[in-house]
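Holo prediction — NAP.
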Amino acid sequence: MSKTALITGITGQDGAYLSEYLIKKGYTVHGIKRRSSLFNTNRIDHLYQDPHQENRNMILHYGDMTDSMNITRIIAEVQPDEIYNLAAQSHVKVSFDTPEYTANVDGLGTLRVLEAVRLLNLVSKTRIYQASTSELYGLVQEIPQKETTPFYPRSPYAVAKMYAYWITVNYREAYQMFACNGILFNHESPLRGETFVTRKVTRAISRIALGIQNEVYMGNLSGKRDWGHAKDYVKAMYLILQQDMPDDYVIATGVTTTIRDFICKSFDKIGIAVEFTGAGVNETGKIAGIRSEVFVERVGETYLKRIQNRIGETIVKVDPEYFRPTEVELLIGDATKARTKLSWEPRYDLDALIEDMMQSDIKEMKKEAYVSEAGYRILNYFE
Ligand code: NAP
Ligand code: F7E
């Protein structure tokens, strides 16, 4: 018998990779998507099946984490074997602007899922994965961070996720639910939201290389993150729910890198060397040199002259607008428990992650460059 999974947040980065992974494993996947005025399913469109098709293995339901009745009705209809609760207002900086909404979706939203499973008498059938986060460690109390490291959240997002973490533990202990926290460190991919730092950087670099954008404005360049690939991390989510006993696991690579180094490594992928000088809001990054053969191979001959003319120019600047009122300066995870008990091992290191993201964004931005150049030519023709 194939299993049925329900994924909240199916339209997000992790929801897309997890759906693909579970469908390949033979699952029927149900997902909750929000109503929006524009299509918001581009990450999962390749998995979409027409509602008139028989024996679908991918079914979407309209819903919202702030709507208890809707969550309960969907869970009652789907009767899932596994729920992956991935839906969240997941942007840390935005959580300072929308703290109440973030608490409602990320904190109470988790309670709504757990309570629905309890009220529907699904406790013995349904296993629950809660998308917990390394942001719980915030002002870190131990290096590296593991399952026993005390939490010290530093944003409305992290505080909301702290409630979600503990309510998951509480329902496990109080009602013997198979409810687990995956404490996932940052994970990225070509599907990462465009305003998270890695994707912002790989998109901006691609646009700078193609001459669509001149420079990029960043926030705190000295912050350090433990970045992995989302493809590896959704496998860990699945493994967490396949164990004999419910438990909580740290998922991380164990390597930490500054934002500044991430930028340099990403530019290096297309043969551009960047040199940083200054400090704080006055720190800047300029083009120090170009390896032409790499640039031509990765970006194209057409764009070489223009970028060569920019050697010595500043292309990375700091805008304090991107600083957070309280920052998380250092994250580095110890995933020994996951490696030992789940036999989980990441396949991508940071270099392979950046390679994947840069290749994808160069390709995507080339389409944009082509469209804007074509538009420009048409305009010139008519003028
Ligand atoms: P994401 O790309 O931002 O996706 C979030 C998903 O939640 C989207 O499908 C979004 O829908 C949905 N959502 C937001 N508010 C909702 C609401 N009120 N009702 C229903 N759905 C709502 O996030 P992600 O990177 O895939 O992360 C997945 C989960 O893991 C999140 O809970 C995040 O907090 C957590 N997490 C992420 C990381 C990471 O590094 N990526 C690390 C640790 C934990 P729309 O598409 O309509 O916006
Ligand atoms: O920031 C710094 C920023 O927004 C990373 C979410 O998935 O991972 C994510 O949260 C770092 C921070 O991710 C810019 O100050 C500098 O130090 O990519 P981010 P995050 O805040 O770590 C955790 C694990 C989650 O759970 C969250 O859901 O980069 N930074 N300059 C910048 N960040 C952004 N976004 N934009 C900048 O211009």
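READOUT: The longest helix spans residues 350-382.
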